[in-house]
């Protein structure tokens, strides 16, 4: 096995959680080169993985929205780049039309994808001449690792290794001068939001634990919500609008990440930060983050989790500190 192509096109959180596939493949086949095909919007996330050789990307999302000629030309040019290498295996762990088309256009002997019942779009099946087994009964993230192992003939038996290296290019905000909690209140859908009043109560409790509060945002509506939360929490900081790289840098500089089911919270988990993910309308068992004493997901996807549940999760991943900044309590030794 000399070169493998992984196809996972979107979105931020899904791509972050799929990155351990690279370390798995390279552990099974020392010296193998791994390329990755993604949407242009998320190419930097893949580039932060130290094990990826080439990142192949095109403005698929942007073209779908605007249908501009310049984006079409960029997509056409990306096909030539995609076909510049010949792959021993092409593994589509996305399973929709756009990922299947990429897998079909790539040059390779074997193209692996999901069984029809596990595809996001059943018509994507045209692209594959090899199939994974039935979707395993586990979370989506381990499932992608297991499926890739089935395709290439190895077992997954190690914790996920994200191999994340965030560039420090001089654009980062000044490092915080006290332990800081990043609060990711924004979500892609209205029904996934946690109430502003809950965020206010949670932030007050975090301040009482010695943490500063910072509120990132990415749109005018998110900025307005951040200001609403800050109005309830004296001393909370609404950050300026940041690039994805700057958010990643801020996560690295933080002490704790708390947020809803959104990509940046997955990034906090991948960067090995104490992380709490709050689920309101999606499935924590299938889509959440978890790592002993470091990452916890709360909520059943049907009810709004109370503040007390989120605070209990915080205490598990970020135990109370004594006066000297050291952790104390039953989890301190385990962490």
From TrEMBL:
Its EC number is 2.4.99.23. Its main location: membrane. It comes from Paraburkholderia pallida. The gene is waaC. GO terms for biological process: lipopolysaccharide core region biosynthetic process. It is a peripheral membrane protein. This is Lipopolysaccharide heptosyltransferase 1. Belongs to the glycosyltransferase 9 family. It is found in: Cell inner membrane.
């Amino acid at each position: 096995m000399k070169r493998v192509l992984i196809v996972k096109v979107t979105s931020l959180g899904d791509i972050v959680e799929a990155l351990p596939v690279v370390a798995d493949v390279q552990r099974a086949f020392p010296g193998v080169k791994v390329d990755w095909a993604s949407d242009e919007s998320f190419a930097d996330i893949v580039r932060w993985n130290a094990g990826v050789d080439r990142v192949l990307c095109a403005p698929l999302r942007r073209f779908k929205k605007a249908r501009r000629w310049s984006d079409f030309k960029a997509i056409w040019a990306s096909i030539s780049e995609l076909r510049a290498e010949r792959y021993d295996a092409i593994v589509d762990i996305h399973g929709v039309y756009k990922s299947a088309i990429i897998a079909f256009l790539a040059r390779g002997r074997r193209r692996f994808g999901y069984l029809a019942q596990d595809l996001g779009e059943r018509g994507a099946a045209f692209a594959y001449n090899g199939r994974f087994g039935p979707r395993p009964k586990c979370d989506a993230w381990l499932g992608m690792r297991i499926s890739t192992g089935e395709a290439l003939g190895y077992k997954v038996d190690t914790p996920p290794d994200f191999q994340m290296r965030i560039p420090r290019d001089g654009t980062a905000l000044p490092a915080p001068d006290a332990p800081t909690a990043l609060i990711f209140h924004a979500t892609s859908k209205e029904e996934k939001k946690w109430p502003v009043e809950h965020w206010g109560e949670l932030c007050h409790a975090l301040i009482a634990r010695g943490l500063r509060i910072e509120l990132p945002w990415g749109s005018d509506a998110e900025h307005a919500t951040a200001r609403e939360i800050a109005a309830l929490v004296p001393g909370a900081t609404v950050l300026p609008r940041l690039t994805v790289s700057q958010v990643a840098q801020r996560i690295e500089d933080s002490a704790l990440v708390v947020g809803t089911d959104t990509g940046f919270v997955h990034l906090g988990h991948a960067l090995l930060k104490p992380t709490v993910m709050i689920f309101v309308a999606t499935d924590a068992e299938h889509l959440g983050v978890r790592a002993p004493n470091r990452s916890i997901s709360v909520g059943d996807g049907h009810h709004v989790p109370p503040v007390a549940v989120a605070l209990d999760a915080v205490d598990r991943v970020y135990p109370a500190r004594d006066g000297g900044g050291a952790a104390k309590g039953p989890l301190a030794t385990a962490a």
